[in-house]
Batch of 2 targets.
Target 1
Amino acid sequence: MKLKLNAISKSFGPVKANSNINLTVDNGEILGLLGENGAGKTTLMNILTGLYKPDSGTILIDNQLKEFQNPREANKSGVGMVHQHFMLVPVFSVTENIILGTEPTTRFNKIDLKTATDKVVKISSEYKLDVDPNALIEKLPVGIQQRVEIIKILLRNAEILIFDEPTAVLTPQEVTEFFEIIKSLKKTGKAIIFITHKLHEVLEICDRINVLRRGKIVGEAFPTKTNNKKLAELMVGRTVKLRTSRRKMEKGKELLKVNNLSILSDKKEPILTNIDLVLHQNEILGIAGVQGNGQTEFIEALTGLRKASTGKIVYFGKECINITPRKIHALGIRHIPEDRQKQGLIGDFSLIENIILNTYYEKDFSNNLKLNWLNAKKEARRIINQYDVRTNSEDISANKLSGGNQQKLLIGREMSRSINLLIASQPTRGVDVGSIEYIHSQIIKARNKGIGVILNSTELEEIIALSDRIIVFYEGKIIAEFPSNSDPKIIGLAMAGVK
Amino acid sequence: MNNHTTNKMQDVKTKKSTIIGLCLIFLGCMIYLFFGLGVEGQATFRLSRPTDPFALPNLILPAHSFIGASALLIAFFGGRIIIKAPKKYTIFIALSFFLAIAAFLVWATAGKSFSLTGMLQATLVRAVPIALAAMAGIMCERVAVINIGIEGMLLAGAFAGAVFGSIFGNLIGLILAILVGGFFGFILAALVVTFRVDQIIAGVAINIFVLGITSFLTSHLLKSNPELNDAPIFKSIKIPFFSEIPVLGPVLFKQNIFVYFAIFIVIVSTFYLFKTAYGLRARAVGEHPKAAETLGISVIKTRFYHVIMGGMIAGFGGAWFTLGSVGRFDEGMTGGRGFIGLAAMIFGRWHPIGALFAALIFGFADSLQQKLAILRTPIPSEFLAMAPYLVTIIVVAGIVGNAKPPQAIGQAYVKEN
């Protein structure tokens, strides 16, 4: 047995992040660690890599007891982790990032760049991880950045490799390549822990699956003997519908027309070029694409948060380019922003205050002199009940809620008042499976009532499950359009820029 | 369709270059109007003293025609930028500014004589505290700690240099000044790294504290004991042979140890930051502390070391005011040089060599006002005294928007466990 975790427990204040966790991985084995956000996966791995110290329990590697004071000691024992958010310095070169902390030096502590580069080249050819050692990280696509991370831990002689949500930032093609890399690493006898909340991935790549729920291991499964549905039930603790049913509908009249829209960055470089699209009633238009291809800026232009350089945005037959967000809101256009903590909610405000954040000036809540807190409280209660926000009070601050409940609160706020058009960006990012099911059903319900929906998501599965029509953004352009129920592989190719 | 956007982008570019071109033409006209009209005689620039072994002849320029020619050339550059809209017009802007300053000097000197070498020498001397403040800033900000307290650290170094220099002699005084600077670096690091106090507030607190304590000690201790405020200064050291080179010799090789050490520190810190393993780790801590921590680099320790190092450099720079210049301490004698140093750091894009050149520009403005006072130009001396600060504002307003600081700057690092 390569790695054995014995009864690991860890608490943060009153929260038990991990309790009594036992886990083993063998050489040449891929263990899938499946769990929802907040199930304690990352905490467990931070213990294993020396970032946290466990409250109790032991770590055994090759049957030797290990206690890690810091990440360097974990490294020395052969534990390496590829973090979900890459631990790379954007302005450093590939080589500099890889050797950081273990630099080969000559006199006066001068870095021996040649030896360093040779080492990088050797590992990258040995494991077929193709990468230019002199390239700057910030100029590389995420798929390549991930390879740099892998080389980084291999250089430190890692025998136990941990991947934390490695596919979250990759295109479908990159995911395929990544799986090949993992398989070849497995062949060389590495022990691999693969952390994810995506069911089909663990079924595809892992030898064995451990499911984590609320800080406990709740089950072990083997891909050959289980399926999506069973795993999801283990993960959530109840039966869930994985696919929201969606009946076909005739599209209604035109709600939004975007004509030749272009946006330049502050440096006058094009971010978006000549975007044309139309959205109708009873229609969900999915925007697929790898993050950073202009989707965010497009949504910002639609919602009045960013100035467009040229082109037209026409809502309900009225030209609305570069008008303020409040005017757009007044037209019945609702926005679920992609980052609920930065743009959607104010964490330190109470749920009531958050509920009236974009309507506080309306007659219901204000007489232009003071706010009507009684109405605000009623409204908050109504939304909390209707949208199943799990909280014991509407007076607590929003950052006390879990991610899923924050998102439900946000969706409730946006969808509960008169609404004609919904712009939803990453509506289920970092949300548990149970809440995803609920949010998806709400979006479908809205569309069935005659609302037009623009759905921007980097989760291709979500786009395919919900959309009536799918467009793909690549380098600031719409490079392809697909009908609903298209083959994910073909859409994936378009996301990678292949027409 | 694509052409449409490209055209649009070109429009933006053309518009910008037209504005810049017009500004240059306007500058040319103004120079001729203010300096060129009614000026007579010749401007004499002395390049060496008659006693120098290799004496150069004086540079004599006919004032009116030189100013006229400069104005014309600047206007020509403006026209060229408008018509051709070249990709890189920075060189034209730089040349125009150089000509404008030259024309200004010729105007001020018309009918008189002026030591150019003397001014260049003063430029370097005056750049020293600014460059050292900038180096201190770079050491701190490269590990993502903003050091607004440099002004206070300079002042502390100046005070310590004066008092300890008076008691123990200038060498011990200098060493103690460096240690006092390092001590304040330690205080800043403890405040912002360990206790995660807001970095700006911690720096301002140091400034106010040092200003207060040195003023108090000056009026209560130094006034009654003048022997404690009379330090021997470091004399300039002539480097044999090199100091005989005309113009360059006296500017570069006939200076005191502060100038030599400032240049040495610039070279060493450039090597340290960009060539050594420790420098790489320091920069990693400034850009992405968590990445550094996962590779076993201690963010806390790295920040402590560098902020203390920055404090020591600032202490050394502070000693220049007393031990390298006048030998006595006066209240608030650093006169904002620490802040100008921070501007030089930004202007130099957090690179020691860039910051040195920026410091030279500020030093030039500083020495210009000093030398022009001697020439008795009709410009009031208060306006001349504004020069270094004016240059700071123009430079910061014009450049800062483009410069990119270390990514984690100003953020406290919380180590989880």
Target 2
Amino acid sequence: MNEIFTKSMARNVYYGGSIFFILLFLALTLDTTIALPERDHRENITEQVAHGKTIWEENDCIGCHTLLGEGAYFAPELGNVYKRRGPGFIKAWLKAMPTNVPGRRQMPNFNLTDEELDALEAFLKWSSEINTANWPPNIEG
Amino acid sequence: MLYSSQAVAKPYFIAAIGLFVGQILFGVIMGLQYVVGDFLFPLIPFNVARMVHTNLLIVWLLFGFMGASYYLVPEESEKELHSPKLALALFWIFLGAGVLTILGYLLVPYAQLAELTGNSILPTMGREFLEQPTIIKIGIVVVVLGFLYNVGMTILQGRKTVITLVLLTGLVGLAVLFLFSFYNPTNLVLDKYFWWWVVHLWVEGVWELIMASILAFVLIKVTGVDREVIEKWLYIIIAMALITGLIGTGHHYFWIGAPEYWQWWGSIFSALEPIPFVLMMLFAFTMVKNKRREHPNKIATLWALGTAVVAFLGAGVWGFLHTLAPVNYYTHGTQLTAAHGHLAFYGAYVMIVLTIISYAMPILRGKESEANCEQAQRFETWAFWLMTIAMLCITLFLTVAGALQVYLMRAAENPLSFMVMQDKIALWYWLREGAGVVFLIGLVAYIASFFVGDKKAG
């Protein structure tokens, strides 16, 4: 093996392989960014939706929930919660927190205003309309 | 030690271990919250405990990587570190920023922390693993730049070896890719797409370069095998890591809105991602088999073999388990991901940092034989097995939990809702918590090993 496969060959595989696949990855990324508008419906990102994303982030929702399957696995998937529970539910749910049922997982009350709750719901509605290749498998998330 | 400036590695290693303890304590808290839902509520809500758990992991591994660099770069470059003073100053800045961030998570509601730190000026917070306030992220960039300058100058002015060049490539990659944490578009799909450029391209990309170079360094030291042989292995390992791992990013693009061709690219290339880990395992065992010296530090060799094996299991086997798109359709976002994440991080990155600490600490502490006494090594061996077996158990229990989750919620005829399903799998969370406590005991034994025997050198 020492004779056939030398260190300089290994080095060339490293440099050549890395550069080739970096370029391929960049090309696929370019193609993806061109294809995305069809799938993410960015035309529907209103100021309210954008504000909803900020609220989502500034309350660290991802620390318990998943969104399109990414995040923490402590609480339900929210990418499709708008479709699962329908309009109005999200707002009522957040206002009713925490349940304070002994022994049950608790969600804090984030003291959001009506306007903020509407924005959050708008963000989750928009998220539920992203083309996710038919994921999740069913409505439970 | 050969160069006196290598001593700056010591505080980095000590801080790493200290933060590691914090990480595990919060892990045990979270594990309990999975089954006793209101434990410590509202004092420490789950999301806060999770931020502390994951952020401490990242920070202490970075401390470990920096300590490893400060230790091995002077020895490889055959010259003193460019500026030991800068290294020490950055140590205190990084530690201060880290502690401040954790206190911020614990003492202030997250929304208030966002407001206090001016998140609205440049919003980067509230994304998984990148929860740090923007100002802290900027601080991390400054510290890493100073660190890169310091080791970079040392490497460029000294003897250049394959190990230091690979290490430097990995560290520069780490710094450059972190810059994507400042890109937070309103469009969630774009946000997620480039978020992975930090997260995936770190742990399944450039961090593998760092891991492989540290492993190569320790193997040269403990086995005495010829550098030429080690370097050839190193090149081929990192070549395979990047060739498979770059396009392998695609396994995160299946269900987040990206085009569906990623299901092919992601499946095929991430199915190849175990290759570098197989090679790393072959590498470690072959080198130890062909060793040319008997190094008295047996436990460092055990960690080196252990990291190769457990990284292969955690990243390779458990990664492959759920990486093919048709499988991932059902497993995405379940406890199977958590199972894989735990074993992969422990095997690849926790264990490589513990490998270099195990090798370097006795030397940094001035032990003449370059190793701890037999009694201390025996203690550390116990710690090795306790932590490793506990982590394997955590992984197995979470794997069962994840499989049940998939069946009950996504495959059964009458799918259960999330919380109903969680109640049904509580047993496996209890078992995981038990294994977590054993891990903590192993960690205590690990720390105790530093204080065993050999009083005069302690």
